[in-house]
Protein backbone atom coordinates (compact mmCIF):
# COMPACT_ATOMS: atom_id res chain seq x y z
CA UNK A 1 0.00 0.00 0.00
CA UNK A 2 1.45 3.46 -0.88
CA UNK A 3 2.80 5.20 2.21
CA UNK A 4 1.23 8.51 1.15
CA UNK A 5 -2.25 6.97 1.29
CA UNK A 6 -1.62 5.56 4.75
CA UNK A 7 -0.29 8.90 5.98
CA UNK A 8 -3.39 10.63 4.67
CA UNK A 9 -5.62 8.19 6.57
CA UNK A 10 -3.65 8.66 9.77
CA UNK A 11 -3.71 12.43 9.40
CA UNK A 12 -7.47 12.51 8.87
CA UNK A 13 -8.06 10.18 11.81
CA UNK A 14 -5.64 12.05 14.02
CA UNK A 15 -7.27 15.44 13.44
CA UNK A 16 -10.81 14.10 13.66
CA UNK A 17 -10.04 11.86 16.61
CA UNK A 18 -8.74 14.74 18.71
CA UNK A 19 -12.02 16.61 18.36
CA UNK A 20 -14.87 14.26 17.42
CA UNK A 21 -13.51 10.71 17.58
CA UNK A 22 -12.67 8.69 14.51
CA UNK A 23 -14.75 9.32 11.38
CA UNK A 24 -14.98 5.74 10.11
CA UNK A 25 -17.04 6.78 7.09
CA UNK A 26 -13.73 7.22 5.23
CA UNK A 27 -13.20 3.46 5.59
CA UNK A 28 -16.10 2.68 3.26
CA UNK A 29 -14.02 4.00 0.36
CA UNK A 30 -11.08 1.85 1.44
CA UNK A 31 -13.42 -1.17 1.64
CA UNK A 32 -14.53 -0.60 -1.95
CA UNK A 33 -10.89 -0.58 -3.09
CA UNK A 34 -9.82 -3.56 -0.94
CA UNK A 35 -12.75 -5.83 -1.88
CA UNK A 36 -14.24 -7.38 -5.01
CA UNK A 37 -17.99 -7.17 -5.65
CA UNK A 38 -19.64 -10.52 -6.38
CA UNK A 39 -23.25 -11.55 -6.79
CA UNK A 40 -24.96 -10.33 -3.59
CA UNK A 41 -21.70 -10.13 -1.60
CA UNK A 42 -18.01 -9.21 -1.63
CA UNK A 43 -14.67 -10.95 -1.28
CA UNK A 44 -12.05 -9.33 0.93
CA UNK A 45 -8.39 -8.85 0.00
CA UNK A 46 -6.08 -9.90 2.84
CA UNK A 47 -2.34 -9.52 3.16
CA UNK A 48 -0.49 -12.77 3.90
CA UNK A 49 3.27 -13.39 4.21
CA UNK A 50 3.45 -14.70 0.64
CA UNK A 51 0.84 -12.70 -1.27
CA UNK A 52 -2.54 -11.05 -1.06
CA UNK A 53 -5.53 -13.39 -1.17
CA UNK A 54 -9.24 -12.92 -1.84
CA UNK A 55 -11.37 -14.39 0.97
CA UNK A 56 -15.10 -14.64 1.55
CA UNK A 57 -17.56 -16.30 3.90
CA UNK A 58 -20.54 -18.13 2.41
CA UNK A 59 -22.98 -20.71 3.76
CA UNK A 60 -23.14 -22.23 0.27
CA UNK A 61 -20.35 -22.73 -2.29
CA UNK A 62 -19.92 -19.47 -4.22
CA UNK A 63 -21.15 -19.60 -7.82
CA UNK A 64 -19.70 -17.99 -10.92
CA UNK A 65 -16.16 -17.69 -9.56
CA UNK A 66 -13.04 -19.87 -9.59
CA UNK A 67 -12.60 -21.32 -6.10
CA UNK A 68 -8.94 -21.83 -5.18
CA UNK A 69 -9.51 -23.29 -1.72
CA UNK A 70 -12.63 -24.18 0.19
CA UNK A 71 -13.66 -25.16 3.69
CA UNK A 72 -17.40 -25.88 3.72
CA UNK A 73 -17.17 -26.92 7.40
CA UNK A 74 -16.85 -23.23 8.31
CA UNK A 75 -17.89 -21.52 5.06
CA UNK A 76 -14.55 -19.95 4.13
CA UNK A 77 -13.39 -19.75 0.52
CA UNK A 78 -10.42 -18.35 -1.37
CA UNK A 79 -11.35 -17.30 -4.88
CA UNK A 80 -9.52 -16.00 -7.92
CA UNK A 81 -10.09 -12.29 -8.53
CA UNK A 82 -8.21 -9.42 -10.07
CA UNK A 83 -5.66 -8.04 -7.64
CA UNK A 84 -7.06 -5.11 -5.72
CA UNK A 85 -5.13 -1.88 -5.24
CA UNK A 86 -5.26 -2.20 -1.45
CA UNK A 87 -5.60 -5.06 1.05
CA UNK A 88 -6.31 -5.51 4.74
CA UNK A 89 -3.96 -6.32 7.61
CA UNK A 90 -5.66 -8.87 9.88
CA UNK A 91 -5.02 -8.34 13.60
CA UNK A 92 -5.48 -10.39 16.75
CA UNK A 93 -8.11 -9.23 19.23
CA UNK A 94 -6.07 -7.85 22.12
CA UNK A 95 -6.70 -5.55 25.06
CA UNK A 96 -6.42 -2.49 22.83
CA UNK A 97 -9.05 -3.83 20.46
CA UNK A 98 -11.43 -4.57 23.31
CA UNK A 99 -11.06 -1.13 24.84
CA UNK A 100 -11.34 1.05 21.74
CA UNK A 101 -14.26 2.19 19.66
CA UNK A 102 -14.14 0.35 16.33
CA UNK A 103 -16.48 0.15 13.37
CA UNK A 104 -18.38 -2.35 11.25
CA UNK A 105 -17.49 -1.44 7.67
CA UNK A 106 -19.05 -2.43 4.36
CA UNK A 107 -19.50 -0.83 0.99
CA UNK A 108 -22.46 1.17 2.28
CA UNK A 109 -22.02 0.70 6.03
CA UNK A 110 -20.05 2.49 8.71
CA UNK A 111 -21.36 1.77 12.20
CA UNK A 112 -19.36 2.41 15.37
CA UNK A 113 -19.23 -0.22 18.08
CA UNK A 114 -17.06 -2.42 20.29
CA UNK A 115 -15.96 -6.04 20.35
CA UNK A 116 -18.01 -7.87 22.97
CA UNK A 117 -16.26 -11.26 22.82
CA UNK A 118 -13.71 -13.22 20.85
CA UNK A 119 -14.55 -16.31 18.83
CA UNK A 120 -14.65 -19.42 21.02
CA UNK A 121 -15.46 -22.16 18.50
CA UNK A 122 -15.56 -22.83 14.78
CA UNK A 123 -19.13 -21.55 14.55
CA UNK A 124 -19.25 -19.80 17.94
CA UNK A 125 -18.28 -16.48 16.44
CA UNK A 126 -16.80 -13.30 17.84
CA UNK A 127 -19.43 -10.69 18.62
CA UNK A 128 -19.61 -6.97 17.89
CA UNK A 129 -22.02 -4.48 19.44
CA UNK A 130 -23.57 -3.43 16.11
CA UNK A 131 -24.52 -5.43 12.98
CA UNK A 132 -21.81 -6.26 10.45
CA UNK A 133 -22.60 -6.92 6.79
CA UNK A 134 -21.77 -10.43 5.61
CA UNK A 135 -18.18 -10.12 4.39
CA UNK A 136 -17.99 -6.69 5.93
CA UNK A 137 -15.08 -6.05 8.31
CA UNK A 138 -14.49 -4.93 11.89
CA UNK A 139 -11.92 -2.15 11.60
CA UNK A 140 -9.88 0.07 13.92
CA UNK A 141 -8.34 2.20 11.17
CA UNK A 142 -9.22 1.65 7.55
CA UNK A 143 -6.53 -0.84 6.52
CA UNK A 144 -6.49 -2.85 9.79
CA UNK A 145 -9.27 -5.30 10.67
CA UNK A 146 -10.11 -7.92 13.32
CA UNK A 147 -12.31 -10.20 11.23
CA UNK A 148 -15.02 -10.56 8.59
CA UNK A 149 -18.77 -10.53 9.11
CA UNK A 150 -20.93 -13.66 8.92
CA UNK A 151 -24.30 -12.02 9.55
CA UNK A 152 -25.95 -10.20 12.42
CA UNK A 153 -23.45 -8.91 14.97
CA UNK A 154 -21.02 -11.79 14.47
CA UNK A 155 -17.67 -12.19 12.75
CA UNK A 156 -14.85 -14.69 12.21
CA UNK A 157 -11.67 -13.56 13.91
CA UNK A 158 -8.00 -13.98 13.04
CA UNK A 159 -7.35 -17.27 14.85
CA UNK A 160 -9.86 -19.13 12.72
CA UNK A 161 -9.08 -17.34 9.46
CA UNK A 162 -5.37 -18.10 9.96
CA UNK A 163 -6.15 -21.79 10.48
CA UNK A 164 -8.01 -21.86 7.17
CA UNK A 165 -5.21 -20.04 5.34
CA UNK A 166 -2.53 -22.41 6.71
CA UNK A 167 -4.21 -25.59 5.50
CA UNK A 168 -3.92 -26.93 1.97
CA UNK A 169 -7.30 -28.64 2.32
CA UNK A 170 -9.88 -28.65 5.12
CA UNK A 171 -9.08 -31.05 7.94
CA UNK A 172 -10.68 -31.49 11.36
CA UNK A 173 -9.59 -34.28 13.68
CA UNK A 174 -12.11 -36.62 15.28
CA UNK A 175 -11.95 -39.18 18.09
CA UNK A 176 -15.44 -40.60 17.56
CA UNK A 177 -17.49 -38.76 20.17
CA UNK A 178 -19.73 -35.75 20.63
CA UNK A 179 -19.69 -34.00 24.00
CA UNK A 180 -21.57 -31.47 26.08
CA UNK A 181 -20.89 -29.54 29.27
CA UNK A 182 -22.71 -30.67 32.41
CA UNK A 183 -21.95 -29.16 35.82
CA UNK A 184 -18.63 -27.77 34.54
CA UNK A 185 -17.59 -31.21 33.24
CA UNK A 186 -17.16 -32.34 29.63
CA UNK A 187 -19.33 -35.41 29.19
CA UNK A 188 -19.55 -37.85 26.28
CA UNK A 189 -23.14 -37.79 25.03
CA UNK A 190 -22.80 -39.69 21.73
CA UNK A 191 -20.40 -42.37 20.53
CA UNK A 192 -19.89 -42.89 16.78
CA UNK A 193 -20.50 -46.62 16.18
CA UNK A 194 -18.77 -46.44 12.79
CA UNK A 195 -15.54 -45.05 14.24
CA UNK A 196 -12.87 -47.76 14.19
CA UNK A 197 -12.07 -49.27 17.62
CA UNK A 198 -13.99 -46.59 19.50
CA UNK A 199 -13.09 -46.95 23.22
CA UNK A 200 -15.59 -44.44 24.65
CA UNK A 201 -18.90 -44.90 26.42
CA UNK A 202 -21.71 -42.40 27.03
CA UNK A 203 -21.25 -40.45 30.28
CA UNK A 204 -17.45 -40.75 30.22
CA UNK A 205 -16.10 -37.54 31.75
CA UNK A 206 -13.23 -36.10 29.67
CA UNK A 207 -10.37 -34.89 31.87
CA UNK A 208 -7.51 -34.41 29.41
CA UNK A 209 -6.36 -35.18 25.88
CA UNK A 210 -2.65 -35.94 25.54
CA UNK A 211 -2.14 -34.41 29.00
CA UNK A 212 -3.89 -31.15 28.06
CA UNK A 213 -6.72 -30.42 30.48
CA UNK A 214 -10.14 -30.04 28.84
CA UNK A 215 -12.54 -27.72 30.68
CA UNK A 216 -14.92 -26.41 27.98
CA UNK A 217 -16.62 -27.89 24.90
CA UNK A 218 -14.90 -25.24 22.78
CA UNK A 219 -11.50 -26.31 24.08
CA UNK A 220 -12.36 -29.95 23.32
CA UNK A 221 -13.45 -28.93 19.82
CA UNK A 222 -10.24 -26.98 19.09
CA UNK A 223 -7.85 -29.59 20.53
CA UNK A 224 -9.50 -32.54 18.79
CA UNK A 225 -9.85 -30.69 15.49
CA UNK A 226 -6.12 -30.05 15.46
CA UNK A 227 -5.06 -33.63 16.21
CA UNK A 228 -2.91 -35.00 13.38
CA UNK A 229 -4.55 -37.63 11.18
CA UNK A 230 -3.92 -41.18 12.51
CA UNK A 231 -2.14 -39.81 15.60
CA UNK A 232 -2.14 -42.09 18.64
CA UNK A 233 -4.07 -40.14 21.26
CA UNK A 234 -4.36 -40.73 25.01
CA UNK A 235 -7.54 -39.53 26.66
CA UNK A 236 -7.92 -39.41 30.44
CA UNK A 237 -11.53 -40.03 31.49
CA UNK A 238 -13.54 -40.76 34.61
CA UNK A 239 -15.86 -43.73 34.08
CA UNK A 240 -18.13 -44.88 36.90
CA UNK A 241 -16.08 -42.82 39.36
CA UNK A 242 -12.71 -44.27 38.31
CA UNK A 243 -9.90 -42.75 36.27
CA UNK A 244 -9.07 -44.55 33.04
CA UNK A 245 -6.64 -43.79 30.23
CA UNK A 246 -8.15 -44.59 26.84
CA UNK A 247 -6.15 -44.89 23.65
CA UNK A 248 -7.63 -43.92 20.30
CA UNK A 249 -6.30 -43.24 16.81
CA UNK A 250 -7.40 -39.85 15.50
CA UNK A 251 -9.51 -39.90 12.34
CA UNK A 252 -10.91 -36.97 10.38
CA UNK A 253 -14.36 -35.46 10.58
CA UNK A 254 -16.69 -36.00 7.65
CA UNK A 255 -19.47 -33.74 8.90
CA UNK A 256 -20.23 -31.09 11.47
CA UNK A 257 -20.15 -27.33 12.08
CA UNK A 258 -21.93 -25.91 9.01
CA UNK A 259 -22.20 -29.37 7.40
CA UNK A 260 -24.66 -32.12 8.37
CA UNK A 261 -23.45 -34.40 11.16
CA UNK A 262 -25.33 -37.71 11.37
CA UNK A 263 -22.40 -40.20 11.57
CA UNK A 264 -23.32 -41.32 8.02
CA UNK A 265 -21.22 -38.67 6.24
CA UNK A 266 -18.13 -40.93 6.25
CA UNK A 267 -20.11 -43.16 3.84
CA UNK A 268 -21.00 -40.24 1.57
CA UNK A 269 -24.66 -40.38 2.61
CA UNK A 270 -26.75 -37.20 2.71
CA UNK A 271 -30.22 -37.03 4.26
CA UNK A 272 -33.05 -34.53 4.31
CA UNK A 273 -35.17 -33.67 7.34
CA UNK A 274 -37.47 -36.63 6.63
CA UNK A 275 -34.40 -38.90 6.92
CA UNK A 276 -34.63 -39.69 3.22
CA UNK A 277 -31.34 -40.36 1.45
CA UNK A 278 -30.93 -37.61 -1.13
CA UNK A 279 -27.40 -38.39 -2.28
CA UNK A 280 -24.68 -41.03 -1.96
CA UNK A 281 -21.17 -39.95 -2.90
CA UNK A 282 -19.74 -43.05 -4.57
CA UNK A 283 -16.21 -41.62 -4.52
CA UNK A 284 -15.90 -42.13 -0.76
CA UNK A 285 -13.70 -45.11 0.16
CA UNK A 286 -16.18 -46.29 2.82
CA UNK A 287 -19.57 -47.53 1.67
CA UNK A 288 -22.82 -48.89 3.09
CA UNK A 289 -24.08 -50.76 0.01
CA UNK A 290 -27.38 -51.66 1.70
CA UNK A 291 -28.61 -48.07 1.24
CA UNK A 292 -29.95 -46.48 -1.95
CA UNK A 293 -30.92 -42.94 -2.88
CA UNK A 294 -34.59 -42.48 -1.97
CA UNK A 295 -34.50 -44.82 1.03
CA UNK A 296 -36.08 -43.41 4.20
CA UNK A 297 -34.81 -44.39 7.64
CA UNK A 298 -37.92 -45.20 9.71
CA UNK A 299 -36.40 -46.36 12.99
CA UNK A 300 -33.32 -47.91 14.56
CA UNK A 301 -33.55 -50.94 16.85
CA UNK A 302 -37.35 -50.67 16.95
CA UNK A 303 -37.14 -47.09 18.28
CA UNK A 304 -38.51 -44.01 16.53
CA UNK A 305 -35.79 -41.49 15.69
CA UNK A 306 -37.48 -38.12 15.23
CA UNK A 307 -38.91 -36.75 18.49
CA UNK A 308 -42.05 -34.54 18.71
CA UNK A 309 -39.94 -31.45 19.47
CA UNK A 310 -37.43 -32.06 16.65
CA UNK A 311 -38.39 -28.93 14.74
CA UNK A 312 -35.02 -28.16 13.14
CA UNK A 313 -32.38 -29.88 11.06
CA UNK A 314 -29.93 -29.64 13.97
CA UNK A 315 -32.31 -31.40 16.38
CA UNK A 316 -33.11 -34.15 13.88
CA UNK A 317 -29.41 -34.80 13.28
CA UNK A 318 -28.83 -34.92 17.03
CA UNK A 319 -31.63 -37.48 17.46
CA UNK A 320 -30.22 -39.65 14.65
CA UNK A 321 -26.71 -39.53 16.15
CA UNK A 322 -28.16 -40.51 19.53
CA UNK A 323 -30.06 -43.43 18.00
CA UNK A 324 -26.94 -44.72 16.24
CA UNK A 325 -24.89 -44.20 19.41
CA UNK A 326 -27.31 -46.13 21.64
CA UNK A 327 -27.60 -48.96 19.12
CA UNK A 328 -23.84 -49.16 18.70
CA UNK A 329 -23.29 -49.47 22.45
CA UNK A 330 -25.74 -52.39 22.49
CA UNK A 331 -23.77 -54.05 19.70
CA UNK A 332 -26.61 -54.31 17.18
CA UNK A 333 -27.71 -51.66 14.69
CA UNK A 334 -30.93 -52.75 12.98
CA UNK A 335 -32.49 -50.17 10.68
CA UNK A 336 -36.01 -50.18 9.27
CA UNK A 337 -35.96 -48.80 5.72
CA UNK A 338 -38.86 -47.59 3.58
CA UNK A 339 -37.99 -48.04 -0.11
CA UNK A 340 -40.76 -47.03 -2.49
CA UNK A 341 -43.39 -48.04 0.08
CA UNK A 342 -41.78 -51.36 0.92
CA UNK A 343 -40.43 -51.61 4.47
CA UNK A 344 -37.64 -54.00 5.40
CA UNK A 345 -34.78 -54.36 7.90
CA UNK A 346 -31.07 -54.09 7.38
CA UNK A 347 -28.29 -54.70 9.88
CA UNK A 348 -25.20 -52.48 9.89
Please report the first level of CATH classification, the CATH class of the largest domain. Mainly Beta
Count of distinct structural domains: 3
CATH topology of the largest domain: Thrombin, subunit H
Compute the number of strand runs: 27
Q: State mean pLDDT (0 to 100 scale).
A: 93
Which geometry do the CA atoms define? globular
Specify the CATH architecture of the largest domain: Beta Barrel
- Uncertain stretches of 5 or more adjacent residues: 5-20
Work out the strand percent. 35-45%
Structural class: alpha+beta
Main sheet overview: 8 strands, mixed
- Oligomeric status of the shown chains? single chain
Please report the distance between the alpha carbons of the first and last residues.
59 Å
Rounded radius of gyration (Å): 24 Å
User: What's the number of helices?
Assistant: 6
Provide a compact summary of the structure.
The protein is an alpha+beta fold. The chain has helices at residues 3-19, 26-33, 95-99, 158-166, 217-225, 313-330, and strands at residues 35-38, 41-47, 52-57, 67-71, 76-79, 89-90, 102-106, 109-113, 115-117, 126-128, 137-141, 144-151, 154-157, 173-174, 177-182, 185-191, 205-209, 212-213, 232-239, 242-249, 251-252, 269-271, 277-280, 296-300, 303-304, 334-339, 342-347.
